[in-house]
Amino acid sequence: MASAQLRDTKRRINSVEATKKITRAMELIAASRIPKAQARVQGSKPYTAKLIEVIENVGAAGAADHKLLERREPKTVGLLIVSSDRGLAGAYASNIIRMAEVRIAELEREGKDVLLYTVGKKAQAYFRYRGYQIEQAYLGVTDTPGYGDARAVANVVMEHYAVGRIDALEAFYTQFVSALTQTPLQAELLPITPPEAGDDDESTAVSYSFEPSPEDILNRLLPRYVEAIVFNMLLEASASEHSARRRAMKAATDNAEELIRTLTVQANRARQAEITTAITEIVGGAEALADA
Amino acid sequence: MAKSFQVDVVSPEAIVWSGEAELVVARTSDGELGIMADHEPMMGALTTGAVSVQAESGERTSIGVHGGFIQVLNNQVTLITDRAEITEDHEAAQQVAKSLADEQVEASEDVVEP
Predict the structure, then answer these.
(1) Which residue among B41, B45, B73 places its CB closest to the CB of A212?
(2) Which residues pair with A275 in a beta bridge?
(3) What is the mean pLDDT of chain A?
(4) Same domain, yes or no, for A70 and A194?
(5) Which residues form the domain of A159?
(6) Are A130 and A262 part of one and the same domain?
(7) CB of A156 less than 8 A from some CB of B
């Protein structure tokens, strides 16, 4: 019966409209967070740049011996995987997880052990479900990562590296290129590859006075460097996540609009069919009476 | 008027202070340290405490600092701090520095989950 179809279609339109309201709200929330997250990425850059400059100078002054710099044959490789706590961000989390999983398979083929450090619920849930060994999982970090979060992550991995629990650490995170492009990246974190002083650097011959000793300074500098890099990754990932979510929610909103349009046409057609049927019935009835 | 030099105070989150200054007083692990223009190249580890920067205009800024490094090179002074916050005066700076240090300990304690 036509009126039942009309009622169903109208009910669907209402439901899609309600969904659209939600996705629209999520889109706006994500959009409002992007500039802030982006500003934080920018804000962290001077610090990292200055830190690298200082490390270059210390390295040039001849202090370059530290356990975090020491390379050893990797038997156990740690993977730091930065994903998100929440879904509804398109392929954001699965892209980075897939990339990490490929690398895990590769390492296992080479006969190496793998330890996972996950940031965000998505990576934790994925790898735990598949029976991988998760050494440490961090939750509630990705929305607005603070330096303290980065420090907590960095301290654990550096500690594990120092005691030989892992022999190398690779990080997987999403780099924020622009609001439209976010690239999943793989980066080697430990051992530290010291930033090389450029050849054109006239400051290489500087003889510093160190307060305290160069070794002490380096001992404090390198952990800061790792922290700063982890912090930078978390910030990039956070900006990427908000962008990915905004885009996913925009697509969902657009789809809902499209669906509403199609359903409205359907509803109109159903209504029209109902009217036509009614008229035909009346006319048919009237003619039957006239004939009689 | 004393010669001035470039000073940058950065923290992981932002540039805290940047500009020309005549005098920087900071505390390193070896003790209090005053830096004026043409200081010899130096690298030091900062401790928790107040840093005071006297700008070219004569204006003094107190900054509460927790940990980090100070680099002096070619009349460029860079303070790379873990946490830093500009405050009204020296005492406030010291207090802020202390509270920054405490906060940090707390913050790093609650994020780690097994």
Answers:
(1) B45
(2) none
(3) 85
(4) yes
(5) 34-246
(6) no
(7) yes
Distances in Å between the Cα of A178 and the Cα atoms of A46, A123, A146 are 19, 24, 22
A159 lies in the same domain as A113: yes
For the ranges A15-24, A85-94, A206-215, B12-21, the lowest mean pLDDT is seen at A206-215
A194: closest CA among A25, A38, A51, A5? A51
Residues A130 and A206 in one domain: yes
Q: Contact at 8 Å (CB) between A82 and A182?
A: no
With an 8 Å Cβ cutoff, are A147 and B13 in contact?
A: yes
Q: Name the amino acid, one letter, at A87.
A: G
Specify whether A153 is located in the same domain as A254: no
* pLDDT of A27 above 80: yes
Residue A203 has pLDDT above 70, yes or no: no
Note the pLDDT tens digit of each residue in A269-283. Answer: 999 998 999 999 999
The answer to whether A266 and A8 have CB atoms below 8 angstroms apart is no
Looking at the complex, report in whole angstroms how far the Cα of residue A14 sits from the nearest Cα belonging to chain B: 42
Task: Specify whether the CB–CB gap between A257 and A20 falls below 8 A.
Answer: yes
3-state DSSP assignment of residue A140: coil
Whether the CB-CB separation of A245 and A90 falls below 8 Å is answered with: yes
Residue B110 pLDDT greater than 70, yes or no: no
E strand residue ranges, A55-95: 76-82
SS3 A176: strand
Which ipTM did the prediction report?
0.76
Between chain A and chain B, the number of residue pairs with CB atoms below 8 A apart is 110
Those residues of chain B whose CB sits closer than 8 Å to some CB in chain A are 8, 10-15, 28-30, 33, 40-45, 68-69, 71, 73-74, 78, 80, 82-83, 103-104, 107-108, 111-114
For B20, phi then psi, to 5°, come to -90, 135
Of all residues in chain B, the one with the smallest CA distance to A217 is B45
- Give the tens place of pLDDT for each residue, A83-122: 888 888 888 888 889 888 899 888 888 888 888 889 988 8
> Once rounded to an integer, what is the mean pLDDT over residues A15-22?
94
Number of structural domains (chain A) is 2
Domains along the sequence of chain B with CATH: 5-111 (2.60.15.10)
Which among B31, B23, B24 is positioned nearest to B3, based on CA atoms? B23
- CB distance A203–B30 less than 8 Å? no
**Across A163-175, average pLDDT:** 88
Do A143 and A103 sit in the same domain of this protein? yes
Chain A residues inside the 8 Å CB shell of B40? 209
